[in-house]
Amino acid sequence: VEGTPGPEVTPTSYENDDASVASATATVAARGLMEQVEMAWQKLTKGDEGADEDDEHELRMRDVPDDIYDDSDDLVESLDDESLFRFPAVGQGQLGDINVAGRSAFYFLVVHKKQSQSSPEGFIDLIQGAQMATMTSTATIEARSRSVVFRPVDHSLNPDPEKFHTIDGLLRSHASEPDQPPLVCYPAKGVADFEQWSARDLNAFTDAAVARYRERGLEPANPDLEKAPVVAILAPSSLDIVVTFFALNRLGYAALFLSTRLTAPAYSRLLEMANCSSIITTESFSQIIEEIQQERQLQHLSLVGGADYRDQNAPPFRRNCDPVKESHKIGWILHSSGSTGFPKPSESRSTNVYLNVPPSSRIYLTNYQCLANLRKSFSMKCFCVSPLFHSQALMELGRSFYTRKAMYIGNFSFPVTRQNLVAALKVAQPEQITTVPYVLKLLAESGDGIAELAKAKVVLYGGSACPDDLGDRLVAQGVNLVGNYGATETGQIMTSFRPPGDKEWSYMRVWPPVADYSLFDEIAPGVFECVALDGLPSKGPSNSDDPPKSFRTADLFTRHPDPKKSNYYKYLSRLDDRLTLVNGEKVLPIPIEGRIREDELVKEAIVFGFQKTVPGAIIFKADRAAEMSDAEFLEAVWPAVEAANIRAESFSRIPKELVVVKDASIAYPKTDKGTFIRAQMYQQFAEDIERVYHGFEKGHAEGTLQLDPHQLEEFLLGKFRNDLKVPLPDAETDVFSAGVDSLQTTRMWRLIKQNLDLGGHNLSNNVVFEKGNVRTLARYLYELRTGDGAEKQEDEIEVMRSMIEKYSTFTQHFPMQSKQPEKEIVLVTGGTGNLGAWLIADLLKRPSVAEVWALVRAPGQAAAGARLMQSLVSRNITLTDAEAAKLFAVPSGFSKPDLGLQAHELNHLLSSTTCIIHSAWAVNFNLGVRSFENQHVRGVHNLLNFCLRVTLPSPAKFFFCSSVSTASGTPKPATIPEAAIEDLTHAQGMGYGRSKLVAEHIVRNAMRQGKAAGLHARVLRIGQLSGDCQNADWNPTEAIALMIRSALTTKSLPALDERPSWLPVDLCAGAILDIAFSKTSQNAKEGKVGAGTDGSSEDADLVYHLVNPKLFSWKEDLLPALRRTNLPAFEVVSPSQWLDRLKKSDADPVRNPSVKLIDFWEKKYGGGAPGTKAVVTQEASQEESNVPGLTFETLKTAQASHTIAEAVDPVSAGLVERYVEAWLRRWVE
C-alpha cells in the first residue's frame, strides 16, 4: 500500500460518489505482515483435506476458522457467515481482474496462497508478485457500498537505507547474502547475449577496478573531508560504467555522469560547476579531453575494461571511514539537458523517472538520498535501454539492484532498432519495461515487438509524452502501458496505474498523500500547471512564493472532462517552450527561432515538433517578402535555417520539408508585447503541421528509378555524401559507426521513397539502421522491387562461355634478358586478406625470396602501405627489419592492363618478376557471375598477360587461388580429380564459384597458349580455411564462424551430417609455396625455382587441391568440442529448425551478421533437408542434395606439398577451443 514512508502500511479507500479520500480502514505493521499471513494460512488449511477442487475458487466465510483474524482484528470489518469469496484459478503473481466480495486485501493474500499452493519459503516472492500484479491490474475489493482501490506497493517493506548507509554498503550487503541471483545483466558483445552478474560478482569486479584505478593514480578519498571529491565519467554505456561507479563509491568519490553528446565548452562548464578535476573516459574522447585541458587542469584516467576486473582475484578493499558520515556525502551527480544554454549539474532531495526535467533542475544526491530513492522499487525484473548517464537508466538499475531483482540493460554499442529490442526482450523476459515513447514506437512497428511489450506486467514510459494513437494501439493489444510523471524537484507526482478495463492510459492520476500537497493551477481556460506545494515529502527546492515555498514545474496539463475524474490529468506541453520529441530528446526552439528571425525577410518563426521524430518550423514572411512565392521565399531564407541548424544539436535540426511558409497578413496569437503564444500557435496551425509531417513521414508519390544493386550502391553513397554530408568511404561502412543519426536516416528514407521504384512495397522508417550499410540496403531495395530478389534471368552458363572466350587471347612472350635471377621476386595480390597476409609473411622469411610486391587496392602509396601493415598487425604477424626491407606495397587496379602501377614500378616488375600468386577475390555470394567480370575475371587476364610481358628468359609463373566451389555443383556422389572441370554447370550456383571456374579455364588456356614460351600457370583449388595455428585467428565474418556465432542469437546449432575438412590458413600458405617452389619437401627447403612445373606439363599438372585430407565429424567431434568452450549453452537441433530460428532472430546484419547468409544456408538446409553430405565444408555454397557428397582428391597435392601430407584436423589439434576463444574476444569488441 503506497503511503507515507515508515514502518506502517496504510490501505487507502475512495468513495464511489465523489472519489474523495476516506480515512484508512486499518493499519498493519509491515514488519509482521509476512508472519501474520503465514499464521492465517496455517489456520485456514488445517483440516482441509476433504475440500474439493471448487474450494480453491469459492470459499464461504463460515468455513474460515473463527480465530484466523486474531492477530489483525482491526484490519477489516466483520462480515456475515454467508459472505462469499470468489477468485480465479490464475498463476502465481498473475492475478488478473480479481473481484472479492468480502473482507480485505489481507484475506485476499491468504486466499491467493491457498490457490497457488506455494510453499511458506516462497511466500515472500508470492506476496511481492501479488503486490505488483495488483498494482498493475488494480484488484478491486468490494465491501458494502464502498469501492476500495487496493494498491499494495509498500516500499517500506524494502530494507531501510540506514541498513546500508552508502551505495557501497548496499553492494557489500547483497554480496554477503547466501543466495546470489543475477542482478546486472549486460550483453557480452551483441544485443541479446546477456551476461548475468550477481552482487558477489560485482563486488569482486569492484575490488579489481579499485586496484586498477589506484594503479592509475586515483587514491582513496580522505574520509575526513566534509564533501566527497568528484570524479566525472565520460564514456559510452557499458558494464564498465556500472563497475566504475561502484568502484568510485567504494573509494569515497562522488560520480559525475556526463552525457556523451556535449561539446568541450559544455563539459568544461559542468566540471567547473561540480568542482571536478578528474575524469574517467575512453580513447574516443581524447580530442575532447585535449580541448578541456586547454581551459582547466584535469586528471585523465582510462576507463577500466573487462580484462581489468574479470577473473582478477583482487584483494578486498575497504576504507577506514564512518559509514554514517559517508551516507551524507554526495553519491552521484547528474546534469540537466542544457535547454537554456549550457547543461547544469543538478541537485535534489529525490528523483524518479520523469516526463520532463525543468531547466533549473539540480541533482546532487547523497548516498542516503540515492538509497532512499532506490528503495522505491517495484521489485520486478526490469529491462531498460536508456544510456547510463540518464537518470532513468541509473535509477531503474539502482531500484532493481536494491530489491535484488535483475536489470537487463540494452547494449548502446548498437543502434536502437526494433530487431535489436525484440531480440533483447525475448532473452530478458522482463516483468517491467522502463522506456521512452520512441522505443515504444519502434516496437509497435511489428507484431513481435508488441507481443514482447504485452508479456511484461507493466510498461512504464517516461522522458516524453506518448502519442495518443501509439498508446491506444498498444493498450488495445494487451500492453499494460503506464505513464509516470514527476520532476527532479518534486519527486513522483502521478502515474496512470489503473484497474483492469480502464483504457485511459494517457490520463495520470494524482492520489493522496501527493494530492494533498499538489496544486494544478489553471493558468488559462482548461490549461493547468502542476505545482508542488510546501510539505510534499519528496519536494526539494522552491522557485515560487505563489503559493509560498512552492515549486512550479512549468508542465501544462488538461483535466479529464468527467467531473468524477477530477484528479485525472493529461500532459499538454511545456510552459518554458521546450519541445520534447518522441524519442525523449529535448529541443530548445528559442535559439533556432531567434537565428531564423534575424533574416530580414522573416517576420516570425516558430519551431514545432512535440511528440514528433524531428522538429519543423512555421516561418512568416516579412512585409518586404509579401510578393515572393512560398517556394522563392523558402529558398531565400533557407541559409538562415541552415545557420540555425549548424548551431543546434543534430536532433534539433530542421529539414526543409518541414518548413511551413505563411504570408505576413495572416494573424496569429500573440501577447500585448507582440510575443507569439506558443500553445495557441500550435492549435491554430495544427492542420498545417500535420500536413507537412504526413508528407515528410509518409512520403509523396513513389519514385520511378529502377537500379541494379551496384547502381543502387552508387545512388545511396551519393545521397549520403552530397545530400546528407556524410562521407561514407564505401558501401560496407557501418552507417551507425560512421555517425549517422536518426534525422539523417529519416531523410535518407525519404530520399529513397521519392526517387526509387520500390515495387509498391512499404519501407520501414528505420530501414537504414536496420540494414546497417549501403551494400545491404542496396540489395534489400533491389529485392523489394523485383519481388524475389533474383536478378533478371540470364543464361549464366552462356555468360561464362562468353567470358572464357573473351579473355583467352594473350600476348606473346618476348624475352629481353639472357639470365634468370637467382632469387625470387614475387608479386602477391590479396595481401590485405587472410591468406594473402600469411603468404607474404611466409615469403618474407624465405632466403630465396629477394622482394615481395603486394598489389593493394588503395588510393595511394601511403594508404596501400598502411592497409597492408594493418592487415599484418591485425593477425599478429611481426616482421624483422630484414623482412620488412623486402616488402613493397603499391596501389593497383587489376582491371587495367598495367595493373594501375606507376611507370617506374611497372618497368621494374616487368624486368624482374619471377612469380605471381593471385589470391584477391571478392567473397560475395549474392552477385551474379557478370558482377565479377570487371575487377576479377579481367584481372586474371591482365595478370596472365603481365606474366608473359616479363622480359626474363621465362615468363613469370602464375598461381591462381581458386576454390572448391568451382566443383560444388557436380552431381553427387562424385570424386573431384585434380584436373580441369569441363562442365561449367558443375560450379556452385552463384556468381562467386562460377567466376572462379571461368578464371580456371582462362588460366588453362593461357598455359596452353604459352606452353612454348614456358608459361607455368597453376590452379590451386582451396577448400575451407580455418584460423592460423599460431594465433588461432579466424575471420569472424566467414560462413563457419557466422554459423557458430548464431548460437548466441538462436541458442542452437545445427546437427549437420558432415565430415568437414578445415585447413589452417598459415598451413595453406605454406602448401602454396611448397607447390610454387618445389616438387618435394626437400626442394621446398632449397627454394629451387620452378621445380615440378617444367614447360612440358600438360593439363594434368594444372590443378591442385588445397584441402585438409584429415576429416572430422561435425556431430561427433566438433559439437562436443564447442560445448567445451565458453560459448553460451546451446541446443543441437536439425538444420531446418536451426534455420527457422535464425530467420526469426535479429534481422540487422550489423548486430547479427549470421543473417547475411540465410539465403546461402537456405539452399543447403532449407525445406527440412538433413544437411549436406559434402566431405569438404566449403567457403561457398553447395547445392542441396540427399545423396552422398563430394570428395576432393589430394594425392598429387600431397606429393607436391609436405604441408598437406602432414596435416592434422583442427579438432584433434585442439584448435577449435582456441578459435572460439578468439572469436568471443572479437565479438565482444
UniProtKB/TrEMBL annotation:
Domain of life of the native organism:
Eukaryota
Record keyword Repressor present: no
Q: Respond yes or no to whether keyword Phosphoprotein is given for this record.
A: yes
User: What keywords sit in the KW lines?
Assistant: Phosphopantetheine, Phosphoprotein
Any Pfam family from its record, for instance, is NAD_binding_4
Q: Which residues form the Carrier domain?
A: 716-781
**Which residues lie within the region annotated Disordered?**
1-20, 538-557
Q: Domain Thioester reductase (TE): where?
A: 828-1072
Q: Write out the coiled-coil annotation as residue ranges.
A: none
Q: Which Gene3D superfamilies match?
A: ACP-like, N-terminal domain of ligase-like, NAD(P)-binding Rossmann-like Domain
Which residue numbers delimit the AMP-dependent synthetase/ligase domain?
195-507
Enumerate the PANTHER family for this protein: ENZYME, PUTATIVE (JCVI)-RELATED, PHENYLACETATE-COENZYME A LIGASE
Would you tell me the protein name for this molecule? Carrier domain-containing protein
Q: Which organism is it from?
A: Hortaea werneckii
Q: What is the lineage of its organism?
A: Eukaryota, Fungi, Dikarya, Ascomycota, Pezizomycotina
